[in-house]
């Protein structure tokens, strides 16, 4: 079912693109259209695919299939008088898939680095991703840090303040999110869009 | 004729896509039933040491192993039966050696994330337990691979096909350790090599498509990583995957390239019509709905017709060239 939805989405996208190329993204009189390449990085099972699924389709699956390689999804939203089209790469989290990651973050304008607030190791891994992006990704990349699974705050292992301090020191946007309850999911994507 | 007598899930418990063409499938199945009956008859004429590798057997395998013989045939053709009988350690003993908490934890996290939409996996009490045993036993006896995401899908399909835990374990072991080159180790070196090998093969066999994909700016790995890692599980319809695996167990990893080349050729026009990355990715994602892909019998014929002559020697030479 999910695959079929994605396919319909892809088909809708293709149509949108065809008319889009006729108008050209910039310089049209009907408000600005901007395209945005965004990549999600982070340890396995922190909720990368779930955040994307919530943002793109407003859905949540308790058990989201593990992502192999990467998944590509798009979402178009209106911000003031600008139409923003997100092209989202949702990557595989397991450490050994790391060598494939550069092709997904290369040329990305934004990245969401995700960790699980109930698991300290995933926060460490998030910091490693931030460092790698700062060194290897394009210098203007906007990086957001998402502390996901906020609905499980009673099992919290990473303090909000600790992550906020780290984000401030590194110039990152930061929010705690919950793909399950939808808390801050649209917000974090929109904050990046701005 | 009624619109369709087929359920919304396939015989292995997977949901069919929302836009599944039941009429086309009806037509295909009415022919395919006759094919299956004929293949079963033909297989029953095989006498003596029937798994001795001969041209006849190779042809028989390419035309599909009857499903009631699949488990036995896969075990013999892949070398898994030999692994099992010559192993100094039994499977039940291997299961007793499962003790590494870190490996246990990552496998446990992936269990409910393996085929959550399949009607058997989430409801059956035994299947997830069997999947855990196969993956954990495998990870403990092969430290270089351990657990690699993707193996859950392969082991899951092996369980659905054979309905037997121990058989699935030996088949997984034969696949990962003998039939496929180092796809799943920590560096994934074998995968990275084979991605480059496919790149070069397509440059040779389909230069126009190759140039187009290059111009659109899609690295091959974006479209094909899952083909190699999951052996087309989660990529193509289940019965089509099993027909590919019939050949994979007999002929080895070269089959992956043949299927990949054929898929690209079948979708040549669609690919050439794309003009940007999102469209191109969508085209790769939609390949499972192609008429020929659903008609697994026709598909396998096309695979061998379209991919021409591809020798193991040629593949090995390219692998050495692109070795990581």
Secondary structure elements and pairings:
The complex is a heterodimer of chains A (194) and B (324).
Chain A: H1 2-23, E1 32-42, H2 48-57, E2 70-79, E3 82-91, H3 102-105, E4 110-116, H4 120-136, E5 142-148, H5 160-170, E6 173-176, H6 185-193
Parallel strand pairs in A: 1-3, 1-4, 4-5, 5-6
Antiparallel strand pairs in A: 2-3
Chain B: H1 22-44, H2 55-62, H3 70-78, H4 80-86, H5 91-96, H6 101-110, H7 126-141, H8 151-162, H9 165-179, H10 189-205, H11 207-216, H12 220-230, H13 238-251, H14 254-266, H15 268-273, H16 277-285, H17 291-294, H18 296-306, H19 312-321
Domain Rab-GAP TBC (chain B): 64-252
Organism (chain B): Molorchus minor
Protein name (chain B): Rab-GAP TBC domain-containing protein
Describe the 3D structure.
- Chain A is of the alpha/beta class and 194 residues long.
- Chain A has six helices and six strands, in the order H-E-H-E-E-H-E-H-E-H-E-H.
- In chain A, strands 2-3-1-4-5-6 form a six-stranded mixed beta sheet, with helices on both faces.
- In chain A, strand 5, helix 5 and strand 6 form a beta-alpha-beta unit.
- The longest helix of chain A is centred in the first third of the chain and has 22 residues, at 2-23.
- Chain A starts with a helix and ends with a helix.
- By secondary structure, chain B is mostly helical.
- Chain B folds into two domains: 67-179, Helicase, Ruva Protein, domain 3 (Orthogonal Bundle); 189-322, Ypt/Rab-GAP domain of gyp1p, domain 3 (Cyclin A, domain 1), CATH 1.10.472.80.
- Helix content of chain B is 65%, strand content 0%.
- Chain B contains 19 helices and no strands.
- Chain B has helices at residues 22-44, 55-62, 70-78, 80-86, 91-96, 101-110, 126-141, 151-162, 165-179, 189-205, 207-216, 220-230, 238-251, 254-266, 268-273, 277-285, 291-294, 296-306, 312-321.
- In chain B, helix 8 (151-162) packs across helix 9 (165-179).
- Chain B starts with 21 loop residues before the first helix and ends with a helix.
- The mean pLDDT of chain B is 94.
């Amino acid at each position: 079912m999910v695959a079929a939805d994605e396919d319909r989405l892809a088909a809708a996208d293709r149509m949108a693109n065809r008319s889009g190329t006729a108008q050209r993204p910039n310089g049209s009189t009907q408000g600005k259209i901007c395209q945005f390449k965004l990549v999600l990085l982070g340890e396995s099972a922190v909720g990368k695919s779930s955040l994307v699924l919530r943002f793109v389709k407003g859905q949540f699956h308790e058990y989201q299939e593990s992502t192999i390689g990467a998944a590509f999804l798009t979402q178009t939203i209106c911000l003031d008088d600008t139409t923003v089209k997100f092209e989202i790469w949702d990557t595989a989290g397991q450490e050994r898939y790391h060598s494939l990651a550069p092709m997904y973050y290369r040329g990305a304008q934004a990245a969401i680095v995700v960790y699980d607030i109930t698991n300290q190791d995933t926060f460490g891994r998030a910091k490693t991703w931030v460092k790698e992006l700062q060194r290897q990704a394009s210098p203007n990349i906007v990086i957001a840090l998402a502390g996901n699974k906020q609905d499980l705050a009673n099992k919290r292992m990473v303090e909000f303040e600790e992550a906020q301090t780290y984000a401030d020191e590194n110039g990152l946007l930061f929010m705690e999110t919950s793909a399950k309850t939808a808390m801050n999911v649209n917000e974090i994507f929109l904050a990046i869009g701005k | 004729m009624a619109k369709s007598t087929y359920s919304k899930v396939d015989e292995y418990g997977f949901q069919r896509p929302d836009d599944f063409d039941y009429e086309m499938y009806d037509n295909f199945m009415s022919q395919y039933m006759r094919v299956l009956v004929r293949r079963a008859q033909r297989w029953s004429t095989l006498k003596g040491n029937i798994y001795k590798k001969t041209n006849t057997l190779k042809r028989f395998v390419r035309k599909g192993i009857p499903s009631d013989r699949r488990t036995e045939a896969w075990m013999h053709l892949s070398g898994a039966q030999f692994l099992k009988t010559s192993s100094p350690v039994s499977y039940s003993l291997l299961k007793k050696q499962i003790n590494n908490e870190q490996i246990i934890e990552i496998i446990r996290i992936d269990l409910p994330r393996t085929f959550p939409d399949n009607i058997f996996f989430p409801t059956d009490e035994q299947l997830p337990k069997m999947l855990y045993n196969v993956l954990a036993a495998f990870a403990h006896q092969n430290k270089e691979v351990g657990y690699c995401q993707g193996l859950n899908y392969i082991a899951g399909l092996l369980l659905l096909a054979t309905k037997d835990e121990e058989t699935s374990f030996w088949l997984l072991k034969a696949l990962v350790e003998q039939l496929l080159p180092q796809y799943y180790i920590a560096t994934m070196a074998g995968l990275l090599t084979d991605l480059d090998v496919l790149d070069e093969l397509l440059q040779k066999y389909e230069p126009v498509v190759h140039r187009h994909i290059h111009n659109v700016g899609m690295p091959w790995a974006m479209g094909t990583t899952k083909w190699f890692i999951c052996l087309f599980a989660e990529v193509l319809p289940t019965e089509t995957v099993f027909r590919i695996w019939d050949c994979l167990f007999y002929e080895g990893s070269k089959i992956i390239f043949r299927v990949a080349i054929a898929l690209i050729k079948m979708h040549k026009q669609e690919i050439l019509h794309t003009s940007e990355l999102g469209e191109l990715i969508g085209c790769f994602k939609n390949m499972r709905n192609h008429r020929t892909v659903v008609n697994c019998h026709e598909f396998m014929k096309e695979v061998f017709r379209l991919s021409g002559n591809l020798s193991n020697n040629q593949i090995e030479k390219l692998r050495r060239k692109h070795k990581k």
